[in-house]
Design a protein that fits this description.
single chain; alpha+beta; eight-stranded mixed β-sheet; five-stranded antiparallel β-sheet; 28% strand
């Protein structure tokens, strides 16, 4: 599919810093706030394009957009217009930002159209109605299975037949920069003693990505695998915080609960699936063969480099993992097709986490559970301290980008500081 805004030869009259995540070929959507007012914007370089101002002054007049569509607290109503409308807006913004186009560049009030990204506050881009977290990286599932069972039975019998997932808590999904408090709950550190209550001692991150849906289906209807990507508007970085000691005690027989629902952190810019088109790659061969409703054609996986770092309080950052979204066994189209095959209805703004993304090598693992191998291999920090899991005062930073032919499509970052338990 040829998309005008993806042209790698495009240049912008806006100055783009070297290695910026937001060249003219990206143009992700988000919600920003100035002086208490929220509006929709697009990122380019270290600037934010004020979509509300563009619309108000007629620069998007040919697109038949509803009045006030970019002056709302969330992008849900815009996303609900569908991917074709999103593509038209992105292409039009690309035109306005291209070298040689004077429509916006020469506008009398450019300051209200183009804002410094450092001078705005980024907010949650969508009101998240429902949230599903999948478990779709084979290496991660294998590593965890090895730790808690054995290598011969690392994967559960259903794992290569269905995209395993669970419904999480949307109310505690927060944007980058919002700190979290260490969660409290029941733990059972000794098998032969009663459980205890207190702050989590084994706090962990999970390096994930998440996709956000647009459009809906009726209750009782399924979304086929051929239709699935029509409902995937774009993606964000996703840190699915986990309290490992609470999780170990509570997860049998129904799965994650308090160990997961205290917080999940996302990056603020939604990178469109359109912008990621050039980075499609083939996925792994799925054996045994999956059932027909999960069989797909074409390249549905994406080559996106991922990085996670820990910064101690006031200290230097240490990269502890480098992974890639290509290490998914189940792709997004399969996940959404499976989510709805039973007639489950989805809504615009729903969010779907990938599950921890781990590559085959130890430096590509996506959680401290794996990186420190249950605490047996501590990570040395620049200040001389060690990390088996995340400590109070630590900030976890995740970044991601795809790059080829001199074009870098990035996600910015999601960073979250851990405060002591309340």
């Amino acid at each position: 599919m040829e998309i005008a805004a993806n042209n790698p030869s495009l240049k912008s009259w806006v100055e783009i810093p070297e290695n910026s995540d937001f060249p003219i070929q990206n143009l992700p959507f988000g919600i920003f706030k100035t002086e208490g007012r929220k509006r929709a914007g697009v990122a380019i370089g270290d600037k934010v394009v004020n979509l509300a101002a563009l619309h108000e002054h007629g620069l998007l007049s040919d697109l038949s957009l509803p009045d006030g569509i970019f002056e709302q607290e969330y992008l849900n109503n815009f996303l609900n217009l569908g991917k074709p409308t999103g593509r038209l807006v992105r292409n039009r913004v690309s035109e306005l930002l291209q070298v040689g186009n004077e429509e916006l560049k020469s506008h009398y009030a450019l300051g209200s159209f183009l804002l410094d990204i450092e001078k705005v506050t980024m907010c949650l881009p969508v009101q998240i109605g429902d949230y599903t977290d999948f478990y779709s990286s084979e290496q991660h599932a294998y590593n965890v299975g090895c730790m808690f069972r054995d290598p011969e039975n690392a994967l559960m019998p259903n794992w290569k037949h269905i995209p395993v997932g669970y419904h999480g808590r949307s109310s505690s999904i927060i944007e980058s920069g919002v700190p979290i408090h260490r969660p409290k709950g029941q733990q059972k550190p000794n098998e032969d003693e009663p459980p205890v209550f207190g702050p989590c001692k084994l706090l962990d991150f999970e390096l994930e990505m998440a996709f956000i849906t647009c459009g809906s289906n009726e209750l009782g209807e399924s979304i086929s695998i051929e239709e699935a990507e029509d409902h995937i508007f774009g993606m964000v970085l996703f840190n699915d915080w986990s309290a490992r000691d609470i999780q170990k005690w509570e997860y049998v027989p129904l799965g994650p609960f308090l160990a997961k629902n205290f917080a999940s952190s996302i990056s603020p810019w939604i990178v469109t699936l359109d912008a990621l088109e050039p980075f499609r790659i083939a996925g792994p061969k799925q054996e045994p063969e999956v059932l027909p409703y999960l069989q797909y054609k074409g390249n549905k996986h994406f080559d996106i480099d991922l990085e996670v770092a820990i910064q101690s309080d006031g200290g230097e950052e240490k990269v502890v993992g480098n992974s890639n979204f290509k290490y998914m066994y189940w792709n997004m189209a399969q996940q959404l097709a499976h989510q709805t095959v039973n007639g489950c209805n989805i809504k615009t703004g729903d969010m779907y986490g990938s599950g921890t993304i781990s590559g085959p090598e130890p430096h590509q693992f996506g959680s401290m559970l794996e990186i420190s191998w249950k605490g047996t291999k501590p990570v040395s920090m620049p200040d001389g301290s060690e990390r088996k899991f995340i400590q109070d005062g630590d900030t976890v930073v995740m970044r991601g980008h795809a790059e080829q032919n001199g074009v870098r499509i990035g996600f910015g970052k999601v960073e979250t500081k851990v405060l002591p338990a309340k």
